[in-house]
């Protein structure tokens, strides 16, 4: 980071290390070593910043230490092609390739996540050093860790740089080794592991996750009897799972109800007019069937329809056998906008939305019963009390 800042300031070159002067592109070069010595204060400053960040995260973890789970973190599926990981470990990354997903009904053009995948054979030959270091860093202050796109432990979709996702292909990974490493490191850290096993997932992968004690990730929108096009009842959710209404890649509950995600996808050019109209018609059906599934949990009183639906959705999840259930801050705030729109790198403010309510403001709303937080806390407290009485 110190080297990136220096080159940016002196040569007006961005932080993408592939555009740096050649002598600085190799982290083991004499020029890099000389820079480290001649610019020690800048290097020390960057180390200090990282230390401060780690201290802050540690304090957050300590504040959550008395909770049953603690801090729940997320392990991203990859690293930026212009970041420090790829610069420092160039030999194990497939530079010139991008990771993504093939075309499907949700993303007709496929997805290109614009970061290089790890090379499976080189990763194995290195003793999985990068994977282990990454895992340990993410588990360091975690009570639970969600592994994004967990199918990537078995295979990843490689897309040649500059080519569409339709021209990509799957490459297999040493899944058994990677799963065993995760199991070992999670036990050492005392953290639960949640495998994000949504979308196109193989039976082999599901068995592998279950064998290692990883929790499945069950999302209300997707838990359906697809043959009869109905939503599954709460009791059908597996116990070894984390259940939730949605994820950061999916519409918030309000966004789903208002079909905001469908409109945004059309405005971004992801879908054409015909696909947009078909999606709206399908959403009308989905909304009606979801309301049917939630009907036993919809309160007679409790405000407008959206508030009642939100309370019902979380009451529904609280009644499932899932060991863990999560609630998003966006749903608590009633936001219509999702954090990330898969398949986009521009046009949508991915990962840049700020909460309209501060933590202090949320605390005040809770005390005054002005948001969904207070009734949601009541729902889950009632559930836990019931579970305790049954000695589960």
UniProtKB/TrEMBL annotation:
<dbReference type="InterPro" id="IPR017853">
    <property type="entry name" value="GH"/>
</dbReference>
<feature type="compositionally biased region" description="Polar residues">
    <location>
        <begin position="335"/>
        <end position="348"/>
    </location>
</feature>
<keyword id="KW-0328">Glycosyltransferase</keyword>
<keyword id="KW-0808">Transferase</keyword>
<dbReference type="GO" id="GO:0005975">
    <property type="term" value="P:carbohydrate metabolic process"/>
</dbReference>
<feature type="region of interest" description="Disordered">
    <location>
        <begin position="327"/>
        <end position="355"/>
    </location>
</feature>
<dbReference type="GO" id="GO:0004134">
    <property type="term" value="F:4-alpha-glucanotransferase activity"/>
</dbReference>
<keyword id="KW-0119">Carbohydrate metabolism</keyword>
<dbReference type="InterPro" id="IPR003385">
    <property type="entry name" value="Glyco_hydro_77"/>
</dbReference>
<comment type="similarity">
    <text>Belongs to the disproportionating enzyme family.</text>
</comment>
<protein>
    <recommendedName>
        <fullName>4-alpha-glucanotransferase</fullName>
        <ecNumber>2.4.1.25</ecNumber>
    </recommendedName>
</protein>
<dbReference type="Pfam" id="PF02446">
    <property type="entry name" value="Glyco_hydro_77"/>
</dbReference>
């Amino acid at each position: 980071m110190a080297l990136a800042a220096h080159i940016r300031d002196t040569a007006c070159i961005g932080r993408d290390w592939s555009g740096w002067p050649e002598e600085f592109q190799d982290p083991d070069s004499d020029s890099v070593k000389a820079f480290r010595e001649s610019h020690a204060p800048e290097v020390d400053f960057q180390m200090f910043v990282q230390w401060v960040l780690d201290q802050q995260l540690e304090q957050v973890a300590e504040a959550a230490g008395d909770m049953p789970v603690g801090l729940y973190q997320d392990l991203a599926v990859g690293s930026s092609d212009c970041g420090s990981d790829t610069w420092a470990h160039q030999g194990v990354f497939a530079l010139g390739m991008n990771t993504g997903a093939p075309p499907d009904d949700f993303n007709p053009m496929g997805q290109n996540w614009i970061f290089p995948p790890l090379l499976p054979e080189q990763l194995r030959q290195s003793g999985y050093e990068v994977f282990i270091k990454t895992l340990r860093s993410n588990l360091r202050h975690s009570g639970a860790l969600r592994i994004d796109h967990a199918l990537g432990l078995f295979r990843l979709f490689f897309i040649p740089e500059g080519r569409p996702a339709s021209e990509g292909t799957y490459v297999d990974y040493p899944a058994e080794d990677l799963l065993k490493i995760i199991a070992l490191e999670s036990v050492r850290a005392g953290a639960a592991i949640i495998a994000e096993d949504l979308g196109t997932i193989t039976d082999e992968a599901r068995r592998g996750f279950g064998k290692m004690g990883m929790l499945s990730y069950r999302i209300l929108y997707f838990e359906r009897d697809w043959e009869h096009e109905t939503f599954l009842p709460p009791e059908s959710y597996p116990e070894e799972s984390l259940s939730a209404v949605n994820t950061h890649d999916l519409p918030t509950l309000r966004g789903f109800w208002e079909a905001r995600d469908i409109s945004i996808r059309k405005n971004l050019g992801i879908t054409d007019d015909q696909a947009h109209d078909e999606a709206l018609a399908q959403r009308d059906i989905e909304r009606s069937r979801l309301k049917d599934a939630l009907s036993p949990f919809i309160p007679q009183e409790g405000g407008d329809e959206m508030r009642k639906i939100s309370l019902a959705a979380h009451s529904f999840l609280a009644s499932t056998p899932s060991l863990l259930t999560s609630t998003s801050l966006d749903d608590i705030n009633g936001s219509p906008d999702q954090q990330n729109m898969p398949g986009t790198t521009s046009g949508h403010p991915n990962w840049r939305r700020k909460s309209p309510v501060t933590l202090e403001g949320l605390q005040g709303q809770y005390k005054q019963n002005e948001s969904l937080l207070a009734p949601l806390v009541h729902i889950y407290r009632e559930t836990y009390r019931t579970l305790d009485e049954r000695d589960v």
